Amino acid sequence: MRSPRKVLLAGAATIAVVGALAGCSTSPDSSSSDDGRVQLRVATFPPGADAAAYEAFAAQEKQFESEHENIDIIGVEYEWKGPTFAVQLAGGSLPDVFTVPFTDTKTLLENGQLTDVTDAVKKLGYADKFNPVILDGVTSSDGKIYGFPRQAYAMGLHYNRDLFEAAGLDPDKPPTTWDEVRSYAKQISEKTGKAGFAQMAAGNTGGWQLTAATVARGGRTQTDETDGSATSTIDNDATKAALQFLHDLRWEDGSFGSKFDLDWGTINQEFAAGNIGMYVTGSDVYTALVRDFGLTPDVYGLGVVPTEGEDAGTLGGGDVAVVSPTIDDAKKDAAVAWIDWYYMQKLLDEDAAVADAKTLADSGQAVGTPLLPVLSRDLYEESLTWIEPYINVPREQMSSFIDNIWEQTPVGEPKKKTQEVYALLDSVVQTVLTQENADIDALLTKAQTDAQALLDQ
To answer: Global pTM?
Structure first.
């Protein structure tokens, strides 16, 4: 999931970057540049990324073009947002190469909205290196591949170490149960006046996080049937417990804070500003927190999401690099070359990994943010040894997550009508947070009926 954020860029560094990336966001959609090179519009960062991010991209663009003299890379600001993505896709306003969440790839490929890259993936020689569970998300029923899985994450519990200390809590010992999360949140709120815990509730993120909270308590919001259909199972004890938890934080403890319409961007803004003690989101968010929201690294902590119940797990996700279905063969070849160079080789090749890490580190970008492997765990852990001299994230402040995430069971997001169901669950979360006497049972009964109607379409 991704949502809007804005960070002011100012000064000479910004001017220099704008000059280096003059084509970003405004370049004409032409097939080739004046010198005959193939022009390829590629997704870069969302609006608000800092100057250093663009400096790093400019350096990587230069490296790529030195190795691919027939390709002219044009960086385009890009941000995936569930409610507006379909409009962008239909309107042809997306770059030639962009990324989409795992949750959307099946629907897009079934609708013919992604380019078949099967031959390219096989020719590159790493089709059999992907985690098969992850590769399944971009594979059609006839075995064709429609994208390159490039990054995965698990949900983590992100917390502010300064607020922990101010509340008399040990910043090296994040909570490990939901009861402890509630207790810590109340203590943070009472001692600091800040929100002890917050949760997203808008732009499809409310449903996303409610699903994550359900999985962490042993429930599921959707089950797949053998005939390819799906059944909504939103009305279950785990989802009820997750909503009751939010209700109690908000109405009994007063530790939730006063903002009930946060999405991915705004909750990150609030956290980076020191206004939230704890929240749950993907383990990969540290990079964006520092790059896009100005987080001070010293205040950051990361632990695993508490799990309870017989079938408890940790919701995971990630995104896929894909190629627009509207481009010609020359651009498709260029797109595959870019994806392989920019996204994939640093996962597979030591020299590429080191070059990427050095470029990022030299421009002050995060290197070493905890992820889940899209390839094998062994290869992922080996890659960390390749780039160790350049790792600059405070992994010691993330040790609770790094040391324990492998003990948790990964669970993928629901596969059918994912964003549509998330959207209708947004209102359930918001109702619980804004109406003290909200009938959780009735809300879930209706949500399950509405979700099933979507699944049956």
So the answer is: 0.79
